[in-house]
Amino acid sequence: MSTEVPARTQAKAASTSRHQMPGRESADRKQVTQGRWASVLLAPTLILLAVVIIYPVVNAIIMSFQKDAGLDTATGFFVQGGAAGFDNYAHWIAQQCNGVACPPGTLGSQFWGAMSTTFFFAIVTVALETVLGFWMAIIMARTFRGRSIVRAAVLVPWAIPTAVTAKLWFFIFAFEGIANKLFGQQILWTGSEWPARWAIIISDVWKTTPFMALLILAGLQLIPDEVYEAAKVDGASAWQRFTQITLPLVRPALMVAILFRMLDALRMFDLPYIMTQGGNNTTTLSILVVDQIRQGFNSAAALSTITFLVIFIVAFIFVRFLGANAVGAATSSGKK
To answer: What are phi and psi of 283, to 5 degrees?
Structure first.
C-alpha cells in the first residue's frame, strides 16, 4: 500500500506535466513574440528621441569644450576655434567685471546676475501659483451648478500662447495702460527694475496658475469622501480636516506639480524677453543663452550646459529629498 501511492502520484504528475508542457511552451513563445513586437514598435520613437534630444545635448556638450572662431588680436587674422578645455565654463562662472575678476560671492557678472534673477522669478512665481492654484482646486473640487463651465473657463489663460500673454500684459502695464489708470498711478512698469520684475511675475502667475490648479485638483479627487465624513463625525474642524487629511493625502500630487512648474520657471524666456527684452535686471539664464548665441556658439553651449546642470540638480533634489516622484506615486496608488 505504501509503494502504490507514490507510484500513482508520480504517474499522475507525469501525465499532468505532459499535458501542461505545450501550454507553457506556447506562453513562452507568445511572450517572446510580444517582446520582439514591442521592440519593433518602440524603435521609431527611440530613434526620434535620439535625433531630437540626445544628439543635440551631446553635441552641445562637445561644442562647450571648443573655442569660438574669431579674430586673433595678435595677428589680425580670422582663426578657427580649437580645444578650449574648461575655459568657456570658467568664463561664465568666474566672469570679468569691467576688465577685472568679480569678487567671490558677488553678483556682478552676467551669469550670476541672470542666475539670481532666474531663481527669484522661479521661487516667487511657483510659491504664488501653488497657493492660488490650491485655492482654485479646492473650489473646483466642490459640487455646484456650472462646475464644468468653471473648470473649462479656468483653462483659458493656460491655453493662450505665452507670446500673446506677454503682449497682452505689456499693453496692460504700459504707461497709459489699464494698470496705471486703475490704480491712478504713473508707474513705468517695464522701465525700472522692481516694477518690471513684478509685472513679469503677475503675468506668469495669471497664465500658469490654472496648470497648478488642474494638477492639484487631480490629487484632490483621489481622496475618498468617506474620509472627510468620518472626520466630521469625530468632530474635526475645517482647518483640522485640511491640515490632517487634505495636505498629507494630496502631497504626492502637489510635489509633482511644484516640480513640473519649477523646472518650467527655471527655463523662463518668453515673458521677460517680450515684455522687457531682458532689461532692468530681468535677464534670465535662457535669455542670456540666446544673447550669447549671437556672439559665439561654443560659449553659448557652455552656458546652456550649465543651465541644464542647474535644472537637473533642482529636479534631483525634488525627487530625492522632497518626494516629488511621479512614477513612485503612480506605482503606490496602483498597488492600493
So the answer is: -80, 120
